[in-house]
């Protein structure tokens, strides 16, 4: 049996969707080895015999991946290493090989962090209620030893297969020539972009920060923060690129900047891809989370599709993708999910759709995307609060007379007249309230934000 740990320690590291913490303080080789052993027990009970493992470019990732693999093998399961990979490349490996997977990355978090994203065979999610709580319990009580033979290990390079698979899903042969500025943020986009886009004769890639460096010497690999888009915006303007793409650290999310250097809302990208997927399969289901722009479900309905609203978070989206047979799903955070990609998310596949849509028409990104941006939005605004429930109740009381409806699918969503709405959600891991507001004009958004924050931060 492995070592026991306090529930407080384990709960601080195993989150709702993944495992994540500070290397050396919360995450080390012994800990992830035990996570690997517990994960292997869970997967063995479900009939798996192999686990595929990938890792990002962080200094700690190879050692942690090796420790996890040792824990898996100690439980009698074989291991296939794919080495350096983006998270969606790991999902591809899970789908292609038909086995569970583990990706070592802390995504957009700073260099001192690392973590593990886990999935079942065919990239099916492992979340809080679908396995992570079981792993938590075993890390507290100790993981039982396995008395059978130790598993074997091998290595396989799937990068070229991954790139070819994505290109086969999106028709790019007849697009017009495009110049694309790409900021990899010293993350795994520097590994995958050359293989996926570099072979396209119609595309010229202008690279920025493609050197793999887990210390992130230029800026954090978190394009959701506008400060981390500044260099790409400058490059787009100076190079005359048709479009700019920014990937996060593990390259599973892709953000778009138009030809003027202006950021494009991920909700607008969701709407664009939804339109393309519904053109191939009329009447299909499209998933959107509850803080995605209302423009998305409106467009899906206009096109004869069926919009399905979910909580925020990839495990919830993936569960709904599987349950509904949805062709596509999108989140405000620039996670994009595809049925053709085992229901998993791929920022690179979303980028290919954007390039195809742009290359099919002789007009700039700003014009192409204008049809999908019907509303003004605040973006996510975080407030540190001592009592999230109390502050939320105070906001609801203030808006009681104006609310058209209130629902509690994820935090509280308040629908207001004239299609304005806001959502307040408490963080799962920090003393934060997250606010998102949408309305018909920026002035109305700003007024609502000011009013709500005056209550939240009182």
Write the layout of secondary structure elements.
Elements: H1 7-13, E1 19-22, H2 29-45, E2 50-55, H3 61-74, E3 78-84, H4 87-97, E4 101-104, E5 113-119, H5 128-141, E6 153-155, H6 159-169, E7 178-183, H7 189-197, E8 203-208, H8 230-239, E9 243-247, E10 254-257, E11 263-264, H9 266-280, E12 285-289, H10 295-302, E13 306-310, H11 314-324, E14 328-330, E15 336-338, H12 347-359, H13 365-370, E16 376-377, E17 381-384, H14 388-399, E18 405-407, E19 412-415, E20 421-426, E21 432-439, H15 442-456
Parallel strand pairs: 2-3, 2-4, 3-6, 7-8, 7-9, 12-13, 12-14
Antiparallel strand pairs: 1-5, 4-5, 9-10, 10-11, 14-15, 16-21, 17-21, 18-19, 19-20, 20-21
Protein name: Phosphomannomutase/phosphoglucomutase
Cofactor: Mg(2+)
Pfam families: PGM_PMM_I, PGM_PMM_II, PGM_PMM_III, PGM_PMM_IV
Q: What can be said about this structure in brief?
A:
This protein has 458 residues and is an alpha/beta fold. It has helices at residues 7-13, 29-45, 61-74, 87-97, 128-141, 159-169, 189-197, 230-239, 266-280, 295-302, 314-324, 347-359, 365-370, 388-399, 442-456; strands at residues 19-22, 50-55, 78-84, 101-104, 113-119, 153-155, 178-183, 203-208, 243-247, 254-257, 263-264, 285-289, 306-310, 328-330, 336-338, 376-377, 381-384, 405-407, 412-415, 421-426, 432-439.
């Amino acid at each position: 049996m492995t070592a026991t740990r306090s529930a407080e320690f384990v709960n601080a590291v195993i989150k709702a969707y993944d495992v994540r913490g500070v290397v050396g303080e919360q995450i080390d080789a012994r800990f992830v080895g035990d996570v690997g052993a517990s994960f292997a027990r869970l997967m063995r009970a479900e009939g798996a015999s192999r686990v595929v493992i990938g890792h990002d470019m962080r200094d700690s990732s190879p050692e942690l991946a090796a420790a996890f693999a040792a824990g898996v093998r100690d439980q009698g399961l074989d291991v296939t290493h794919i080495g350096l990979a983006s998270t969606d490349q790991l999902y591809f490996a899970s789908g292609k090989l038909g086995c569970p997977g583990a990706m070592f990355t802390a995504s957009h978090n700073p260099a001192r962090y690392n973590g593990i994203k886990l999935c079942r065979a065919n990239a099916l999610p492992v979340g809080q209620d679908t396995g992570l709580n079981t792993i938590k319990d075993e890390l507290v009580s100790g993981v039982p030893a396995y008395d059978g033979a130790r598993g074997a290990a091998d290595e396989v390079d799937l990068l070229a297969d991954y790139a070819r698979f994505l290109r086969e899903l999106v028709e790019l042969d007849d697009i017009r020539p495009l110049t694309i500025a790409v900021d990899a943020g010293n993350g795994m986009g520097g590994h995958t972009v050359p293989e996926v886009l570099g072979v396209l004769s119609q595309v010229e890639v202008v690279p920025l920060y493609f050197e793999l460096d887990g210390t992130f010497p230029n800026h954090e690999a978190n394009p959701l923060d506008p400060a981390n888009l500044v260099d790409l915006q400058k490059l787009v303007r100076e190079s005359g690129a048709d479009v700019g793409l920014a990937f996060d650290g593990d390259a599973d999310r892709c953000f778009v900047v138009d030809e003027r250097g202006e950021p494009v809302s991920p909700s607008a990208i969701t709407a664009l891809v939804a339109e393309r997927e519904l053109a191939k399969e009329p009447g299909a289901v499209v998933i959107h989370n509850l803080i995605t722009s209302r423009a998305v479900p409106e467009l899906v309905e206009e096109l004869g599709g069926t919009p399905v609203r979910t909580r925020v978070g990839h495990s919830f989206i993936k569960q709904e993708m599987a349950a509904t047979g949805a062709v596509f799903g999108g989140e405000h955070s620039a996670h994009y999910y595809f049925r053709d990609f085992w229901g998993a998310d791929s920022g690179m596949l979303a980028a290919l759709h954007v390039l195809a849509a742009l290359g099919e028409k002789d007009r700039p990104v700003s014009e192409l995307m204008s049809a999908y941006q019907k509303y003004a939005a605040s973006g996510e605004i975080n407030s540190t609060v001592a009592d999230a429930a109390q502050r939320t109740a105070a906001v609801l009381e203030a808006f009681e007379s104006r609310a058209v409806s209130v629902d509690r699918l994820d935090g509280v969503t308040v629908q207001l007249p004239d299609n304005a709405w806001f959502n307040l959600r408490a963080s799962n891991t920090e003393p934060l309230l997250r606010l998102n507001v949408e309305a018909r004009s920026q002035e109305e958004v700003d007024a609502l934000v000011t009013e709500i924050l005056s209550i939240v931060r009182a």
